[in-house]
């Protein structure tokens, strides 16, 4: 019955969209779908998917999009296409194997790494951070406070820009040492407020290292990327000369008449809040792993997707590494990202098993593109509930202008 409804909904959308839009389809650079996990039995016809591809392609073209978009429903790929260049200076085209800096989508993986250690009973998320990082300067912050952005710890980017005087890029340990030297006060009592914190996730990367005895990049590869077959995904470590850089996308910003390459900055040396590079195909493997409750137990995945409850019993639409939304009666878990020219979005519609992945490297605002694709994907639901809108991508943006 569900498949019948999905088919009817998509056909209804395609009919409506065809009657209400008119596009000239341009010639574009596109790569064929490859290296994707096995899907369920298709519920859409070849013609349905062709029309859907045509509409999304036109959206990408009309907005000047440079990057990769993947859309799936019920485990079936409806759209998977690259457009543009990994390196705009030398016109090196994007492929399905080109890794993008995920920016804050990294936090979903860092949180999963912590929960893996919790599942292995090597740490407990309600334990104090000082149990795992003995020199941690705040004695009343728990691992959970770091996971759900309720710690009150100050923005490390501001702290390092103010107090870091060395020419080399600081590491996570350098960041922690700086906090210890400066003894910066907390912005509020842990657990009483929500304030989006890149610092918390940089500290969590250190928790993972101290508890596991592995470097953060190695732990993530051994426990998440390799087991899931995410062969084009890695943590970029700016302090290691052998870090994979040759085939990755580069970040650009618009300038008059074109785009300028964004040069590395000192904050690139800190990992956990950002720093993972991946492809849309690998992120779809991540999505399928979540759908199948892999790596973590069902109860732990559910815990990751629960709203944060403050001390005053108010709730926040953020779980353990995930932003939370609702659309009609279905739940959405997602994370956007923004760093050094990269703009990214990973959205998983839990109850309809739909996925939207957008990766870009030209500082483009993705909100309009994402909103339009969502409306296309869920046209029948929007048609039945015209007053309902999806929450904007930037619900928590502003905590850090550089990385959300």
Description:
Mean pLDDT is 87; it is low at 1-35 and 395-402. Helices cover 33% and strands 17% of the residues. The protein has helices at 2-20, 46-62, 106-119, 143-147, 156-163, 172-182, 198-212, 216-225, 280-291, 298-304, 367-377, 379-384; strands at residues 67-73, 76-83, 85-87, 92-93, 100-101, 234-235, 252-255, 258-261, 276-278, 308-309, 315-316, 323-327, 330-339, 342-349, 354-360. It contains 12 helices and 15 strands. The strands form 5 sheets. A 6-stranded antiparallel beta sheet has the order 2-1-15-14-13-12, with helices on both faces. Strands 5-9-6 form a 3-stranded antiparallel beta sheet. It has a two-stranded antiparallel ribbon with strand order 3-4. Among the domains are: 1-40 and 49-60, no CATH class; 100-277 and 291-325, Beta-lactamase (3-Layer(aba) Sandwich). It is of the alpha+beta class and 404 residues long. 45% of the residues are buried.
């Amino acid at each position: 019955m569900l498949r019948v409804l999905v088919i009817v909904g998509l056909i209804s959308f395609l009919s409506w969209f065809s009657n209400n839009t008119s596009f000239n389809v341009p010639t574009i650079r596109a790569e064929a779908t490859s290296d994707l996990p096995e899907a369920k039995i298709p519920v859409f016809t070849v013609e349905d998917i062709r029309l859907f591809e045509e509409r999304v392609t036109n959206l990408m073209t009309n907005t000047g999009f440079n990057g990769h978009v993947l859309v799936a429903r019920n485990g079936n790929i409806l759209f998977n296409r690259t457009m543009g260049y990994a390196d705009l200076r030398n016109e090196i085209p994007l492929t399905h194997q080109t890794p993008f800096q995920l920016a804050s989508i990294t936090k979903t993986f860092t949180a999963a790494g912590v929960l893996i250690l919790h599942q292995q009973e090597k740490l407990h998320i309600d334990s104090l951070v000082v149990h795992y990082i003995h020199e941690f300067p705040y004695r009343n912050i728990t691992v959970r406070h770091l996971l759900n952005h309720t710690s009150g710890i100050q923005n490390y980017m501001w702290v390092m820009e103010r107090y870091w005087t060395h020419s080399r890029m600081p590491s996570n340990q350098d960041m922690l040492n700086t906090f210890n030297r400066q003894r910066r006060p907390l912005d509020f009592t842990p657990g009483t407020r929500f304030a989006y914190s890149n610092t918390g996730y940089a500290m969590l990367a250190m928790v993972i290292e101290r508890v596991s005895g592995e470097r953060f990049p190695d732990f993530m590869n051994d426990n998440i990327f390799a087991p899931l077959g995410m062969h084009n995904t890695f943590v970029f470590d700016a302090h290691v000369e052998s870090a994979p850089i040759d085939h990755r996308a580069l970040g650009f910003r618009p300038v008059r008449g074109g785009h300028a390459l964004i040069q590395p900055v000192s904050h690139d040396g800190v990992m956990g809040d950002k720093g993972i590079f991946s492809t849309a195909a690998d992120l779809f493997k991540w999505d399928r792993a979540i759908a199948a409750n892999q790596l973590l137990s069902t109860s732990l995945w559910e815990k990751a997707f629960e709203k944060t409850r403050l001390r005053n019993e108010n709730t926040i639409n953020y779980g353990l590494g995930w932003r939370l939304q609702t659309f009609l009666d279905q739940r959405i878990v997602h994370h956007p990202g923004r760093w050094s020219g990269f703009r990214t979005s990973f959205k998983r519609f839990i109850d309809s098993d739909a996925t939207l992945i957008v990766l870009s490297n030209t500082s483009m605002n993705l909100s309009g593109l994402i909103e339009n694709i969502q409306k296309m994907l869920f046209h029948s639901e929007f048609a039945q509930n015209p007053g309902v809108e999806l929450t904007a991508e930037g619900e928590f943006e502003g905590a850090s202008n550089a990385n959300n």
